[in-house]
Amino acid sequence: MALDTTIIENKIGEKFGDSAFNFRMEHDIFTFEATPATIKAVIHFMKEDDTLRFNFLTDLCGVHYPDNNKDTQFAVVYHLHNWIDNVRVRVKTFLNGAKPEVDSVVDIFASANWMERETYDFYGIVFKGHPNLKRILNDEGMTSFPMRKEFPMEDSGRTDKDDRFFGRTPNNYEPNK
């Protein structure tokens, strides 16, 4: 019997109740959310359950939603793959913007090690229990997290560029007709 999304939803729902919610298809991949307090247990259950068998962590990444309320300003997104039934699932957990932290899953999937470090490096999300949580790509002396959307993308004082060449035209500029 193929692993259907209703089976996944029912098993997760039975085990975690209201801590796992918002089950849906999103861009052709089954997606749901879990609370930060239970996300590690959810992922562990999905890997170890004899029916679900999500035995591979394809990706783990962070997202910054600066316009959300403080309790949901950051998200950690986990992509899991069941190789046996060839099923993929996306699991999200939303974190508090003032203190974005969640339990590490390195002890469940060793491949999460560098993914969690990269997410910390760029978003400042702390993975509690990570064996070596430090910057992986950026300079260790950096005090900011460059993928947060609170920083401007460009230096507004630059004079060495003409916005017309970047697809941005001033209101008073009319391209040749």
Description:
The protein is built from three helices and seven strands. It has one domain: NADH:ubiquinone oxidoreductase Nqo5 subunit (Beta Polymerase, domain 2), CATH 3.30.460. The mean pLDDT is 90. It is an alpha/beta fold and 177 residues long. The strands form two sheets. A five-stranded mixed beta sheet has the order 1-2-5-4-3. Strands 6-7 form a two-stranded parallel sheet. A hairpin with a 2-residue loop joins strand 1 and strand 2. 25% of the residues are buried.
The gist of it:
This protein has 177 residues and is α/β, with parallel strands linked by helices.
- How are the strands of the largest sheet arranged? 1-2-5-4-3
Number of helices: 3
In CATH, the homologous superfamily goes by the name NADH:ubiquinone oxidoreductase Nqo5 subunit
The proportion of strand residues reads 25-35%
Q: What does the secondary structure layout of this molecule look like, with pairings?
A:
Elements: H1 5-16, E1 20-26, E2 29-34, H2 39-48, E3 56-64, E4 74-82, E5 87-95, E6 101-103, H3 112-123, E7 126-128
Parallel strand pairs: 2-5, 6-7
Antiparallel strand pairs: 1-2, 3-4, 4-5
List its traits.
two-stranded parallel ribbon, 19% helix, 26% strand, globular, alpha/beta, 5-stranded mixed beta sheet, Beta Polymerase, domain 2, 3 helices, 177 residues, single chain
